[in-house]
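Priority: medium. Attachment 1 of 2:
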């Protein structure tokens, strides 16, 4: 099974064929309704920075089966701040990328370390513009 998790009102819900019974698309308030340790693939879109701590990450990881893969995307705070300081983003753009309901800043490298500390093998870390993508596999 596969699931895509997004933030209601902050990231757009992905559009996929609704006839696919193996794909669950949920927002952050529905994570608890997902069964534990059954998902082969999880995709998390713009979610972690809207929570005060890593409890949502721990909940999501509990849904991933052994050998399952997770992909996490979001705005890298360091890249946004660098872009604001060098003029890539004006103050309004940077404010929207940094604030807009977020409760904390996330950067890809500390997130990579966090995933490793939870026992996942990080297989990809990429940053394009202000967006990061991390992929990892549960052992």
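Attachment 2 of 2:
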């Amino acid at each position: 099974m596969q699931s895509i998790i997004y933030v209601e009102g902050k990231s757009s819900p992905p559009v996929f064929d609704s006839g696919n019974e193996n794909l669950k698309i949920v927002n952050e308030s529905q994570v608890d309704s997902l069964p534990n340790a059954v998902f082969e693939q999880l995709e998390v879109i713009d979610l972690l920075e809207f929570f005060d701590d890593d409890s949502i990450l721990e909940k999501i990881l509990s849904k991933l089966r052994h050998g399952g893969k997770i992909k996490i995307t979001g705005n890298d705070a360091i890249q946004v701040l660098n872009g604001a300081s060098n003029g890539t983003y004006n103050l309004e753009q940077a404010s929207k990328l940094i604030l807009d309901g977020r409760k904390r800043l996330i950067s890809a490298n500390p997130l990579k370390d966090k995933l490793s500390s939870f026992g996942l093998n990080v297989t990809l870390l990429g940053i394009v513009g202000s967006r990061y993508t991390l992929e990892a596999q549960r052992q």
